[in-house]
Amino acid sequence: xxxxxxxxxxxxxxxxLGGLPYLRHFRERNPGEDTAxxxxxxxFPYGPKDKDALSxxxxxxxxxxxxxVRPKLAVLACNTASVSALDSLRKAFPGLPFVGxxxxxxxxxxxxxxxxxxVLGTERTIADEYIQALARKxxxxxxxxxxxxxxxxxxVEYAMNSVSRAERLRVIKPYVEQFRAAGAxxxxxxxxxxxxxxxxxxxxxxxxxxxxxxLSGVSSRAESLLSRQGLRGGxxxxxxxxxxxxxxxxxxxxxxxxxxxxxSLVLLDGISGEPV
Length: 276
Ligand code: DGL
Prior knowledge:
Layout: H1 3-6, E1 10-14, H2 20-29, E2 35-39, H3 51-69, E3 73-76, H4 79-92, E4 98-99, H5 105-110, E5 116-121, H6 123-127, H7 129-138, E6 143-148, H8 150-159, H9 165-182, E7 186-189, H10 198-205, E8 210-212, H11 215-228, E9 241-244, H12 251-261, E10 264-267, H13 268-272
Parallel strand pairs: 1-2, 1-3, 2-9, 3-4, 5-6, 5-7, 7-8, 9-10
Bound molecules: D-glutamic acid.
């Protein structure tokens, strides 16, 4: 056992704040692990970018992060990054195990009574063949209705905290109604940003529509990879450093998130001056 390796952090990455619920979930279950977080706000949003552009920018970002953070495991806490670049990152950085976040399509299609599962994600995630292929593999009798909601990503990143719960319910209602009208009996939250609205989605979905998220799937996968590689534990569970790309100060919203999620903010471009 190499404790010098074990004490290194587990690194979570998203284009913005979407991965924070995943970081929190993992930290709660793993108090003996150190963690770090990256919000790539310079390149936010990822959803409208194509696969090659995302692979290139994530390669560049990890090339900077690996020597700086020395992670023992990286969690792409972003569906868009995962469906687009997980394979290329694994090839490019064979020494670093990666965990991806993909929409929880499997339980949704396996449990569907109406034979129609709903998935809400970014344009890139919904356009990717991954979701339909996974659904066909798990239950060929169930169709998947994918809806891209880029405006909801922007809402969560920039506005969610400054509006009332009533306003949040008003914003997501059309999506829930769209799935209900089509006969879907599930809504898979296929973008990590939407986890911030999980309670609101569940309230509007009611009894007849099940809302799926991938929180525990991602934590479990990270835990089993760490165990398998003998990398479990070794940290103190201390306050994670949260690296923000892009220029400028963190701003009030990130200061608040730092308080809510117990983060220590670091301006990544302030360190190297080298834009991604
Ligand atoms: N949070 C990301 C996801 O899970 C993407 C948001 C974006 O940058 O478009 O897909």
